[in-house]
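Narrative of accomplishments. A recurring question from our advisory board has been how the design workflow behaves on a single, concrete structure rather than in aggregate. To address it, we present the structure tokens for one chain from the evaluation set, followed by the sequence designed for it. No filtering or post-editing was applied between the two.
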């Protein structure tokens, strides 16, 4: 049985999105295994219905809508669904909740995070305990947490913290293990996975998909998370890849290697800053806003492209077929591809005829198509993974440098204009020089970060993380040596 997952609402819009589709804060995923159709979360507004209509995925014949928790960007779109639609969620979803700032003796609300009024008149089934939704789909119910973390306030007047106790997850019980879909991960990834294992009796985890709130996670938090994921992977001896499984997530699925991960991480994502996670025996893929992650046991993972509903390439394609498919998709001739990739036409022709290309050729083709080398190969070895990582780092560095040069150009033009205005209107003062000096200082600092500090900080960070991950402290190692 195949589970097809279609992401209808997410923070960012995929370049493969259908014309007219819109990105919104939040999440909504349509799941279909051939027996049941479940909508997990509904985004913030009617965007979920509009996007579904644009890709011919009607939401009128759903078996159920499962809402992870009561934040508006995950349940706000329920009023746009068809009347009588079955909705399953925790009763705590009806709590009012706010984002607020706590000052001495007072809590100041900044934003309302709930949409309680939208649940009136709907066919809602409230449940704190686990229950079968339909077929293989299971609602987790409330996830127990010993020391929950507050995420805002339910009553800012009395400073009552919101522990998001209403958050649950959707589970799809596959023959290869549990597929766990989370909304935000407020209750913690480890707690969520253990709870799902306990209620289903299944100790194998095939995939974790959704929001984990890792953007602001500390290095220690990520190290612990890595250890937990290692425990999951090793305790089950789980080494099957997503491609070999045959239970891939349907259209829009791509197979990635861990080295491809940085291509999908924005510069402000904390995961990119901590390569300790990338060295785990599992694979991460994340988007910037909510650190949405896809995890699959083994060497490869499935990345569900946001709004990507038509697969560009079959998973069984050879390198030659993939190169030709990508070239035709861009409406390029072989001569145009050769020019863009800085290769000879003969090299392109040999590649499309089935001759195995070298890593340099693959790197040039991947850059031309804006994909990773691993996507062009049937299997990615260590050399390809290393090459992908180098390409990713190079792209990120080029992006940083381009941003710096844009800032520098803008600063020069603005400062020049200010000096002209200063000279023409107020020649007796030199206020423009003060502004120019401050601006130039900031630009110089930015340049230092881009061209000097970034590389050194990255090297220090890698050394520091490696040191923390070594078994035992220096003192413990010395004691062992004495004994």
């Amino acid at each position: 049985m195949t589970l097809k997952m279609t992401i209808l609402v997410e923070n960012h819009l995929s370049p493969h999105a259908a014309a007219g589709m819109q990105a919104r804060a939040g999440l909504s995923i349509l799941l279909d295994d051939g027996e049941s159709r479940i909508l997990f979360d509904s985004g913030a507004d009617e965007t979920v219905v509009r996007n579904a209509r644009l890709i011919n995925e009607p939401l009128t014949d759903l078996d159920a809508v499962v809402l992870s928790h009561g934040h508006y960007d995950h349940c706000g779109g329920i009023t746009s669904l068809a009347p009588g639609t079955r909705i399953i969620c925790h009763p705590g979803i009806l709590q009012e909740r706010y984002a607020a700032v706590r000052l001495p003796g007072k809590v100041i609300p900044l934003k309302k995070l709930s949409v309680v009024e939208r649940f009136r008149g709907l066919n809602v089934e409230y449940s704190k305990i686990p229950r079968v939704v339909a077929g293989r789909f299971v609602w987790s119910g409330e996830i127990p947490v010993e020391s929950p973390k507050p995420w805002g306030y339910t009553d800012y007047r009395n400073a009552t913290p919101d522990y998001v106790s209403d958050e649950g997850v959707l589970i799809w019980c596959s023959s290869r293990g549990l597929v766990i879909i989370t909304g935000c991960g407020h209750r913690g990834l480890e707690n969520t996975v253990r709870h799902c294992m306990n209620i289903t009796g299944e100790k194998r985890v095939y995939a974790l998909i959704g929001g984990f709130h890792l953007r602001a996670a500390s290095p220690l938090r990520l190290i612990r998370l890595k250890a937990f994921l290692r425990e999951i992977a090793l305790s089950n001896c789980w080494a099957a890849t997503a491609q070999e499984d045959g239970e891939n997530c349907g259209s829009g699925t791509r197979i990635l290697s861990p080295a491809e991960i940085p291509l999908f991480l924005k510069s402000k994502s904390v995961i990119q800053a901590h390569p300790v996670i990338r060295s785990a025996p599992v694979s991460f893929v994340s988007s910037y806003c909510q650190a949405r992650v896809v995890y699959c046991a083994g060497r490869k993972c499935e990345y569900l492209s946001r709004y990507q509903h038509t697969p560009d390439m079959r998973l069984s394609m050879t390198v030659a077929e993939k190169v030709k498919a990508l070239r035709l998709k861009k409406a390029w001739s072989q001569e145009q591809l050769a020019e863009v990739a800085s290769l000879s036409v003969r090299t392109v022709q040999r590649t499309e005829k089935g001759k195995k290309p070298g890593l340099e050729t693959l790197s040039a083709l991947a850059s031309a198509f804006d994909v990773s080398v691993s996507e062009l190969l049937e299997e990615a070895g260590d050399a390809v993974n290393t090459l992908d990582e180098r390409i990713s780092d190079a792209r990120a560095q080029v992006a940083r440098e381009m941003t710096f040069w844009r800032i520098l150009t803008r600063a020069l033009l603005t400062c020049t204009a200010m000096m002209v205005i200063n000279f023409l209107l107020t020649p007796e003062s030199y206020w423009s020089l003060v502004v120019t000096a401050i601006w130039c200082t900031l630009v110089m600092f930015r340049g230092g970060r881009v061209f000097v500090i970034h590389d050194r900080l990255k090297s220090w960070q890698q050394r520091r993380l490696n040191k923390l991950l070594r078994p035992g402290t220096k003192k413990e190692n010395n004691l062992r040596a004495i004994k």
